[in-house]
Amino acid sequence: MLKRWLAVPVLMMACGAVALAADCPPLLEGQLPKLRVKESIDLCQRFASKPLVIVNTASFCGFAPQFKGLEALYQRYKGQGLEVVGVPSDDFKQEAKTGEETAKVCYVNYGVTFTMTEPQKVRGPDAVHLFKILASQTSAPKWNFYKYVVDRQGKVIANFSSLTKPDDADLITAVEQALASRP
What we know:
Elements: H1 2-23, E1 31-33, E2 40-42, H2 43-47, E3 52-57, H3 66-77, E4 83-88, H4 99-109, E5 115-116, H5 129-137, E6 147-150, E7 156-160, H6 169-180
Parallel strand pairs: 3-4, 4-5
Antiparallel strand pairs: 1-2, 3-6, 6-7
């Protein structure tokens, strides 16, 4: 009798994990290593059903001061569920040579508290899965600090060039639209 009693919760947990995996949008399949921490981010577990701003970054790009604006955007809307994900990349030859340098720029120089990953490929056939899906829904980043606003279902609702600052009215409108979306 005790075995049967224990089997029910275990079976329910297993079914729940399968249901969660089935509910994960293609955009959030997989993992990415977190910047300067020996852990990976399970994208589905961490970001499923959350509105997102995903941006490819570069420490030595002229647009790097946008880190401050991205942090302000995150602080303004995180209480409503917004997540900002920064993905450093050297695809445009402007990223630091080490994760330590990247972390210093993000965390020390700009006070970033939103999620940052280790540097990744964001363009072409070697791009990480996340950016392959972003590109398939819209377009690949044309330069550093290309921004994607993603709704709670994992669909890109808007993308913005490097020239668009994080406090731009159109970007804010897209973020608020993503926040209003239902899972």
